[in-house]
Amino acid sequence: MSEDDSADSTDLSDSQPTGREAARKIFDALGARCAAAGLHWYPPRGHFPGIYVRFLNGANFRELELLVEEQAEALLAFPFEHVVFLGELMALWIPPLGRIEAALFKVSATRFSSTYDPTDRAFSLGYFCGPADVDTVTGRYEARVTIGRASDEFDALCSAEYMFRTDTIRIEGVQCVCHDEAYSVLTTLSNAVLFALEREYQTAYYVPRLPRTKRNPTPLLGEARPMLPAPLVEASPMSLYWYARAAADMPLIAFLGYYQVLEYYMPIRTPTLRSERERLCDLLQRCVDAPTLSAFLHSSVERRQFFEGQGGALAARPIPLGQSPEDPRSPVAERVYEIRCRIVHTKRSESSFILPASPQAALLEHDIALVQLLAQAVLLANAREIAEGR
Which of 307, 356, 373, 384 is within CB 3.0–4.6 Å of 319 for a Cys-Cys bond? Predict the structure, then answer.
């Protein structure tokens, strides 16, 4: 090769962008479109290309981490600026496309289950569920409902959450005016379609919620070992505890499972303790350490603010957490019992109940942690009584 050829080749290689530079240009273009649309975005720390974007989600936001170049390219191919996520569901609404789309998971089965399902082939080909009349603020529409593999748009926005391409239910042809209306259309039609599949094929699917983030991760154990012999706990209440512990993605079941541990140890009715509310309060007074409970309620600013008033959508009575060392066990018992009643009693004539898909259910995280702490304390207190022969 001549020197001229070598020089030309060097110049050519110098002019070619590296893979990282090409990726950065794509993410820069994504950021420019976010800025033009008024979406909040920021780059990741360090020198790696990527972008974090806050999308609308009703009155709130949902922040997505986009670090894969192919994701960014897919977003640039459609009007992603107009995407609205729908509540706590793995679902989105794209107004310019007139489309609502939500992920579908099988109940009690993994997505990669080898068990044959009569809907699998239909899903892979695209299963048309038929038209359905839908009333919205702007009029009546004939919605087209299909079930199949996720669209490219849904995959680009939601694959980061689950790391694989899922099946979805897609609703098209409906003009909604706001987040709440799109959410209502999705829940109404998905319930109808999935219930029909359940009756026809005895196969249940559901629209999943966002994975719950663990706010207080368990510290690494290192060389620590469990302290043995550990207190011996009765099998029956422990089965209730483990049942609740396994229901991490089902907040109502988790709350009630821990509550049933408390219920197991409640004293029988007496002339002075006639109601379940009174017996719960008596149980906490006997088995729960007030300073430990107070420390839990003050363990973070977010948790304290929630129980002082921000969690009012779940219970009418907040827990007073002032500077004075007030015993929190009575107000905690009142709150736990009130939430229990709102979950258990679902009479149609009442409007205060909590349903699995309701916004209130998405707020139960702190209260589940609270009733779990109470269940642990009651289990340990009664285990000590067994060990001492009382």
Answer: 307
pLDDT score at 333: 94
Rounded to whole angstroms, the Cα distance separating 8 from 139 reads 65
- Token pair 């309620």 is found at 297
Bridge partners (DSSP) of residue 206 are 105
Helix 329-344 vs helix 290-297: crossing angle, to nearest 10:
70
Query: Which pTM was predicted?
Result: 0.67
Q: Would you list the DSSP string of 41-57?
A: EEPPSTT---EEEEEEE
Region of 199 please: left (phi>0), alpha (psi -120 to 50) or beta: alpha
Whether residue 146 contacts residue 129, with contact meaning beta carbons closer than 8 Å, is answered with yes
Residue for token pair 């995280």: 365
Peptide bond into 229 cis (omega under 30): yes
Q: Is the pLDDT of residue 112 over 50?
A: no
pLDDT at 55 over 60: yes
Better-scored residue on pLDDT, 18 or 336: 336
Question: Pairing between strand 51-57 and 41-42?
Answer: antiparallel
Angle at 315 (CA atoms; ends 311, 319), nearest 5 degrees: 70
Indicate the domain borders of the chain: 15-71, 91-211, 235-387
Using a pLDDT cut of 90, give the percent of the chain over it.
29
Strands (E), the chain: 41-42, 51-57, 60-66, 84-85, 91-94, 99-106, 127-136, 139-149, 167-172, 205-206
Q: What is the dihedral of CA 246, 249, 252, 256, to 10 degrees?
A: 10
